[in-house]
Structure formats: structure tokens, C-alpha cells
Amino acid sequence: MSKETGSSISSKLIFCLLAVYIIWGSTYLGMKIATKVVPPFMLSAMRFLLAGSLLGVIGYVKERSWPDRRQFLSACVVGIALIGIGNTTVALAVHHMPSGLVALMVAAMPAWIMGMDWAFFSRKRPSYLTILGIVVGFVGLFLLFNPFHVQENRSFPLWPVAIVVVGNICWAVGTLLVPRLPMPTQITSTAVQMLAGGVFSFLVSLVFEPGAIDTIPFMTTEGWQAYFYLVFIGSLVGYTSYSWLSKNAPPRLTATYAYINPIVALFLGWAIGHEDISAMVGVSATVVISGVILMTLGRR
């Protein structure tokens, strides 16, 4: 490898890492802003139907392939699990809770993936360091949302916590299904997943968010800016950066986004969204992120 080529790869590595760190960490605040007028499921439908359509065109131009029936159905199942339920429940939660706290709950995703994989898929027992990380992570979440501790100044309900847990489980299952199902080529697969998740979110919105379509004309300028940011930056640039990292960077380095994202989300929620960060939130965040780091280091 020439010095110029090595330098180019290093620069791209840094750019993609920063993109995933900042972009994916900022999408929590973006969803909170965009859902001020348009309900969460309708927002997700709008976001992923547009992003999936654009990515589908890109995938066809670059990959020149189209999935067969089994591949298409597999991608749809994964898309409903990852996007239709997993991502949309996050949009629902940030609508009712501080975006930084929701990011901390999502940071525990590696625990759900490893636990579900151990229980239902590979049956491969995690390392002791990983198990320790899972325990530490959930202790941090308990400190953060302790239902037995009455907080008079709590400004948000706790029921979205259960919604995020369901979404995390669905995201974990979808992630574990990907290598076990016949899937299309990479970009086309992601496009189909986005479209399937968008259609699912739209149907759910029609049932549980009556009048959601009528809210679209009332979207504020700030809301539209957040929406297009989620589509073009969050979905397309963020995905492209993560896709490149998954092929060209060490897995442990790529996995660092899991504990950088909540830090970014907490900071942006405080600096831009005017969300309160109490001492307990700081302590709980430190415990959760420590658990995620242990889980990452403990991967075999």
C-alpha cells in the first residue's frame, strides 16, 4: 500500500467515524424536533419512504441487481423489525422524553443482541467480561429510571421506557436475522428494509394516529429542516459511513459508536434542546456507558 493510499484510507476512516458519532448521535434531537407537529409513526413513514426510495435508486445504479422473492420478503421482515418497530419506537419515546435519556436506553442495545443471540440463536455463551458489562449497563438504566424513587420534578412519563425496550428487542432480533436469511445485495437490502419499515409505520399511523396526515401541512420550518436532516444526513450519509466502516475498520473500533452516540445526544439535548442533565443523569450515564464499553471489550 502506498503512502498516499494509506493516508487516504486514514482520512476516510476518521471522517466516517466522526460522521457516525455525530450524525447518529444527533438524530435523537432531530426526531424530537420533527415530532413536535407530525406524530412519530407518520414521521417515520415520511422519513424512510423517501430515504428508501433514494437509496433504492442508488443501489440499482451501483449494484445492478434486484432481489428475488425470498430475498425481498426477508428484507421486508428485517425492515419491519429494525425500522418499522425498532427505530419508530425511538421516535415515539423522544416525543415524550428527553432525547438524551432515550439515547442512553438505546446504548444498551449490545446487551439485547448478545442476550437474544445466547438464548435463541447461536447459543454461544458471552464472555464473563461481556456479562459483567450487561449487568453494569442495566444497573445504570435502573438508576436512571428507578420507578421506586419518586421524583417530584420528573417532567416526563415512564411508560415510553417499556416502548423502547420492545423496540430494542425487535432491533436485536432483526439484527440477528440478517445473516440467517437470504438477503439482497447490501444497498438494495437496506433500501427494501427502509421501504418496508416506512410502509409498516404508515399503516400503524393510520390506525393509531388518526388525523396524522392532516398535520403535515402544519409542519414548521424547524420541523422540515429536522426532517430533511434525518432523511439525507441521518439515513443516507450516516448509513453510507457505517457501511464503509463495517467493511474497512476493525469491529471494535466501529462498535465505539454505541457509547459515543449517547454522549453526543446528551450534549445536543442539553445545548440545543434545553434538556436538563441532573447529577443523577450524569452518574447513570457514566455507569451505562461503562457497561457498554465492557460489553465491547468482552466480545470474542
UniProtKB/TrEMBL annotation:
The record ties this protein, via Pfam families, to: EamA
Name the domain of life.
Answer: Bacteria
| Keywords for the protein's UniProt record, in alphabetical order | Membrane, Transmembrane, Transmembrane helix
Q: How does it sit in the membrane?
A: Multi-pass membrane protein
What compartments host this protein? Answer: Membrane
| One of the record's GO cellular component terms | membrane
Q: Where are the transmembrane segments?
A: 12-31, 37-60, 72-94, 100-121, 128-145, 157-178, 190-208, 228-245, 257-273, 279-297
Tell me which residues make up the EamA domain.
14-145, 160-296
Sorted alphabetically, which InterPro entries does this protein's record hold?
AA-Vitamin_Transporters (IPR050638), EamA_dom (IPR000620), EmrE-like (IPR037185)
The family assignment reads: Belongs to the EamA transporter family.
Q: What is the official name of this protein in its record? A: Drug/metabolite transporter (DMT)-like permease
Taxonomic lineage from the root: Bacteria, Pseudomonadati, Bacteroidota, Chitinophagia, Chitinophagales
